[in-house]
Automatic annotation (TrEMBL), chain B:
<feature type="transmembrane region" description="Helical">
    <location>
        <begin position="6"/>
        <end position="26"/>
    </location>
</feature>
<keyword id="KW-1003">Cell membrane</keyword>
<feature type="transmembrane region" description="Helical">
    <location>
        <begin position="141"/>
        <end position="157"/>
    </location>
</feature>
<feature type="transmembrane region" description="Helical">
    <location>
        <begin position="178"/>
        <end position="205"/>
    </location>
</feature>
<dbReference type="GO" id="GO:0005886">
    <property type="term" value="C:plasma membrane"/>
</dbReference>
<feature type="transmembrane region" description="Helical">
    <location>
        <begin position="217"/>
        <end position="234"/>
    </location>
</feature>
<keyword id="KW-1133">Transmembrane helix</keyword>
<feature type="transmembrane region" description="Helical">
    <location>
        <begin position="33"/>
        <end position="54"/>
    </location>
</feature>
<dbReference type="GO" id="GO:0022857">
    <property type="term" value="F:transmembrane transporter activity"/>
</dbReference>
<dbReference type="Pfam" id="PF02653">
    <property type="entry name" value="BPD_transp_2"/>
</dbReference>
<feature type="transmembrane region" description="Helical">
    <location>
        <begin position="241"/>
        <end position="261"/>
    </location>
</feature>
<protein>
    <submittedName>
        <fullName>ABC transporter permease</fullName>
    </submittedName>
</protein>
<feature type="transmembrane region" description="Helical">
    <location>
        <begin position="60"/>
        <end position="82"/>
    </location>
</feature>
<feature type="transmembrane region" description="Helical">
    <location>
        <begin position="267"/>
        <end position="285"/>
    </location>
</feature>
<keyword id="KW-0812">Transmembrane</keyword>
<keyword id="KW-0472">Membrane</keyword>
<dbReference type="InterPro" id="IPR001851">
    <property type="entry name" value="ABC_transp_permease"/>
</dbReference>
């Protein structure tokens, strides 16, 4: 197979090599939507090719078809010049296509080597030295005998990449690989990807982050609403031109004025240490957090560092013992032992990370979902539901947030993730809370709608609401937050003011830099 | 000290079917399928086994036939929950009732009949040890095979690829599918194997330990098996310990009587069931350990690559 040799130059030479993978007119539709419409695409060996598009543009569907998880309705997929009919992932792998998933397909209760042995014919014991060898060669250090649940997200990703590499793929698909990494984890990943490309392996890099694509990729195929809108040479593009191709218009920027926080804290956590119920959860240690009316505090950090546990303690889903009730206060009132319902009565509202199951009940209509948290707004009279009020409230949420759905009677699960999120945020905002806690408020929401949600948060802040935003996306926090704190392994960093926040400082905090500072300052004090 | 040998013997005879059936249920649950029809599968295995012995006289043929019959019943269950995506709990209970009913129906002509018990195989040397020898080492062959089967399964889950794949499917069927495994096929085989074991266990009861057919002779042992797997936290070594403990509890009635304590017999026969409830309640208080050991997808409907 001479294709492997040609790829060694990568980049510039890639375009004259025969394509490794070619898609022509590929279409896939689901019940009501066309997820991929007449997609064409070609990738040469050794090429790093970006698939750029907003959430919901159809990137994932396309990748699933290339990897054999889904079958296209029509169109052709050609691999090394021959038509193939991809039936399942095993077949894709045998052809030499590997995939690194965004939500990892690793098994938590097994070791790294056991996980990898599941996709090869070798035993875990025999694989361990090869895992170490590949790890060395491509800059992917990971302990083969470690249990997956004990690994950080970055380590898991490395394990997943090694699993891919062991099968000596000719094409690796990476689904938003940087979205789970701290800023410091991104350059090593890029080095690994470049080494792979130099070895002749083609990489399909899926992302919606323009900087990354410009730093790494040779070419980009840009998707919008299920269609390919352009295939470009990345070198000829600017961030702005890529963004406009991706969204089809200019990105709106939220406007803001300086915060005028109130004096008395709306929400406080004092010296909280909490052991999680979940054995795979994160232990929170010495958490101190103060939130004032009229300010937005952002909690940054790579997910899995205690965000879930902290959010549950704030919402009341995890309630503390009576002895510890003073550790959480709402408007000065101790409430650590109160449940979510009682905290909502104190003026707290909450947008959880998972839309289906926690933010909304998938099987219930939007009206019913609205009632779940908005019933105190006069929607229940003498124990009976005031249907007209509930419906009016729901319709108001739908129109104000521009939620795309078939109406107030639509089931929550019929909405796309982003649209459901807009509905949930709208509902919680309309409860006129004193405190709003929003976990990943714009995750999976398209750029325009995300900007609208952020603008809404800022407007709410200006009306005197205390807001806590927990998010993986640093850009989002830089945009909305007045102050930032970083969670790392269950510890909270010191607060950084908006003016002092930059990605290098916060990035350092995200890998635990503040812990060292704390030790240093204690040493000075002693 | 004959009664001590008698108690030991009674314990292993009672524990063997519990152990075999629990190992089968363990395989199914490790793959993520909760099969609550164990009671029915054991009853059907017992009935078929009894009939085969009564008609042919061959105990091994009976064990085999009982196992195959229950494997067939398990295949019905597996089809409903894996292919037509039925709810596992409801389907399990329904198929269980079907099994018990079928057993009663086909066993009707044999009601109150007895068959000669399965041959005992004294182990050389070991069976000559006083008390322990006649108690533990002069038993039907299956009594010795059951712990060996447990050891084999322990090795399988710990060291073999097959065991790894079953665990993986039980933890995350979505990921297993993404890695390229046939989740439905693997679960189907696991459930049918579980049924085979339950049938063998049921047949063992009717042809080796009780040897008298009466409708409802399994008497809740299938439910004890289901509880036993939870009690064991889905670990083979604890299934073994649990099975012998429950085996001892089922003959506690005899133990109490031999100690000369007067108590109503209804109370005494309910000891194993009460013990089950207490054991489950105590263990379930430690939610953390259950979450570490339980197959994550247990009982959840998996609908393929949707």
């Amino acid at each position: 197979m001479k294709t492997e040799l040609i790829g060694s130059k990568s980049g510039a030479g890639a375009s004259c090599a025969p394509p490794l993978l070619e898609l022509a007119g590929v279409t896939k539709s689901f019940a009501t939507t066309v997820a991929n419409d007449d997609i064409s695409l070609s990738i040469a060996p050794g090429e790093i090719h970006a698939i750029l598009g907003e959430n919901g543009a159809g990137k994932s569907t396309l990748m699933k078809m290339i990897y054999g998880v889904l079958a296209p309705d029509s169109g052709r997929i050609r691999w090394q010049g021959e038509d193939v009919l991809m039936r399942n992932p095993a077949q894709a792998r045998s052809l030499g296509i590997g995939m690194v998933f965004q939500h990892f397909s690793l098994f938590e209760t097994l070791t790294v080597a056991e996980n990898i042995s599941l996709s090869t014919s070798q035993s875990a014991a025999k694989l361990s030295p090869r895992i170490a060898e590949i790890g060395n060669r491509f800059g992917l250090p990971v302990d083969p005998s470690a249990m997956v649940h004990s690994l950080s997200v970055g380590q898991r990703q490395r394990a997943e990449i090694i699993r891919c590499l062991l099968q000596q793929p000719k094409l690796i698909i990476m689904d938003e690989p940087t979205s789970v990494l701290p800023p410091s984890g991104i350059p090593p990943l890029f080095d690994t990807i470049r080494k792979l490309a130099e070895d002749g392996c083609a990489v399909l890099f899926i992302s919606h982050k323009l900087e990354e694509i410009r730093a790494l990729c040779h070419r980009a195929t840009i998707m919008r609403a299920g269609k390919v809108v352009a295939a470009v040479d990345v070198a000829t593009q600017t961030n702005r031109s890529l963004a406009e191709l991706m969204i089809g218009r200019e990105i709106p920027q939220p406007s803001r004025t300086p915060a005028k926080p109130g004096k008395r804290p709306a929400l406080e956590i004092r010296a909280l240490t909490h052991e999680p119920e979940d054995p795979f959860g994160t232990r929170l240690e010495g958490i101190d957090l103060v939130l004032h009316p009229g300010e937005i505090v952002g909690i940054a950090g790579v997910s899995g560092n205690g965000q879930k546990e902290l959010a549950a303690i704030l919402s009341g889903e995890t309630s503390l013992s009576r002895a510890e009730r003073d550790r959480v206060r709402i408007n000065g009132e101790s409430c650590g032992d109160l449940g979510p319902g009682q905290r909502r009565k104190l003026g707290l509202s909450f947008v959880p990370e998972e839309r289906n199951g926690r933010g909304a009940v998938p099987e219930m209509t939007l009206v019913q979902n609205a009632l779940l948290t908005a019933h105190p707004l006069g929607m229940v009279q003498k124990g009976l539901i005031a249907r007209r009020d509930a419906r009016a409230f729901t319709e108001h949420c739908i129109s104000a947030m521009n939620v795309r759905c078939s109406g107030a009677a639509a089931e929550a699960r019929s909405l796309s993730g982003g649209n459901l999120q807009k509905f949930i945020v709208g509902r919680e905002i309309r409860l006129q809370p004193k405190i709003l806690i929003a976990s990943q408020p714009t995750w999976g929401v398209d750029i325009g709608a995300a900007a609208a949600i952020r603008q809404e948060l800022i407007r709410l802040r200006d009306s005197g609401v205390a807001i806590l935003v927990i998010s993986d996306e640093l850009e989002e926090l830089f945009e909305v937050a007045d102050r930032l704190q970083v969670l790392f392994r269950g510890r909270l960093s010191p607060s950084v003011d908006r003016a002092d926040a930059n990605s290098s400082l916060v990035g350092e905090y995200m890998t635990g830099g503040f812990l060292q500072q704390r030790i240093d300052s204690e040493a000075v004090a002693a | 000290m004959d009664w001590l040998a008698f108690l030991l013997s009674g314990t292993v005879l009672a524990a063997t079917p519990l152990l075999i059936a629990a190992l089968g249920e363990l395989i199914a649950e490790k793959s993520g399928v909760l099969n609550l029809s164990v009671e029915g599968m054991m009853a059907l295995g017992a009935a078929i086994g009894f009939i085969v012995v009564a008609e042919s006289g061959s105990h091994w043929l009976a064990i085999l036939a009982g196992g195959l019959a229950s494997a067939g019943l398990a295949a019905i269950f597996a089809f409903v929950v894996l292919v037509t995506l039925g709810n596992q709990v409801a389907t399990g209970i329904a198929v269980g009732i079907l099994g018990v009913g079928l057993a009663g129906l086909i066993g009707k002509p044999y009601e109150s009949m007895t068959v000669p018990p399965m041959a005992r195989v004294p182990l050389p040397l070991l069976s000559d040890i006083p008390i322990i020898g006649p108690g533990l080492f002069n038993q039907p062959l299956l009594v010795y095979l059951a712990p060996l089967l447990a050891a084999a399964l322990w090795w399988m889950f710990k060291h073999s690829k097959v065991g790894l794949v079953i665990r993986a499917v039980g933890e995350s069927p979505e990921s297993a599918h993404a890695v390229g495994y046939d989740v439905v096929g693997i679960r189907f085989l696991a459930v049918v194997t579980g049924g085979l074991f339950a049938g063998i266990a049921g047949a063992f009861i009717s042809v080796a330990s009780t040897t008298l057919w009466s409708d409802g002779m399994i008497a809740g042992r299938g439910w004890i098996v289901v509880a036993l797997v939870v009690f064991a936290m889905w670990r083979v070594e604890r299934v073994v310990i649990g099975a012998y403990l429950f085996g001892a509890a089922t003959i506690a009635e005899l133990l109490v009587q031999s100690a000369g304590i007067a108590a109503p017999s209804q109370l005494l026969t309910s000891i194993p069931y009460i013990a089950t409830i207490i054991a489950i309640a105590l263990l379930s208080m430690d939610g953390k350990r259950i979450r570490l050991n339980a197959p994550v997808s247990l009982g959840r409907v998996y609908n393929g690559a949707q």
